[in-house]
Write a structure and sequence with these properties.
Blueprint: H1 19-42, E1 43-44, E2 59-68, E3 72-79, E4 86-92, E5 95-104, E6 106-114, E7 119-121, E8 129-132, E9 137-148, E10 151-157, H2 160-170, H3 172-178
Parallel strand pairs: 1-4, 2-9
Antiparallel strand pairs: 2-5, 3-4, 3-6, 6-7, 6-8, 9-10
């Protein structure tokens, strides 16, 4: 039996970094962290409790409804006027649901969501859009995005009576504040 030949271990290499390179690295890392913090600060989270909503100047209440055949996740709804307040919903179960957000008044469009197999990105066609008026409730219409074959299909149902029923069942105090009396 012959003995194997093993390569010698290479000598340890030293890593040196010049002061200016270290400064560039720190600047790059700091810029990346700052960008991440700014983006996190730009996203809006849904209202969780059914209680009176206080709107600031030029703010409205966005009611975003879904009727989904399958769950979706990483849903982003962005304003079209360029301000930084993106509506973010981490996941939505299949079926009917509604989410409420206090947002700057303006026009918002469904920008992105993920299904089990697809990622939908709106590339400027602005199909699933809605307006939120200052001081009032704005309704997205009931959105039903679905994966179809090699793409996406977006249905929108504008049934105001059904929306009022859903809002009153999930958020009765907020509905009483923003909807007309029955």
């Amino acid at each position: 039996m012959s003995q194997g030949v093993y390569p010698s271990t290479p000598p340890a290499q030293t890593f040196t970094m010049e002061a200016r390179d270290m400064q560039k690295l720190i600047t790059s890392v700091s810029a990346a962290l700052l960008a991440a913090l700014l983006l996190a600060g730009c996203s809006l989270k849904p209202i969780k409790q059914d209680q009176r909503v206080v709107l600031g100047k030029n703010q409205g209440l966005a009611a975003i409804a879904f009727d989904l055949p399958d769950s979706i996740r990483q849903v982003y709804i962005q304003p079209t006027d360029g301000h930084c307040k993106t509506i973010e919903i981490s996941s939505i179960a299949k079926g009917k649901s509604i989410y409420l957000f206090v947002v700057p008044a303006g026009k918002y469009c469904l920008e992105q969501f993920h299904t089990l197999f697809f990622i939908y990105n709106n590339h400027g066609d602005y199909q699933a859009c809605f307006k939120i008026p200052a001081g009032k409730l704005g309704y997205s219409v009931e959105m039903s995005p679905a994966a179809m074959y090699s793409g996406m299909m977006m249905n929108q149902n504008f049934d105001v009576a059904e929306f009022h029923t859903l809002l009153r069942s999930k958020y009765p105090k907020i509905a009483a504040q923003f909807l007309p009396a029955k």
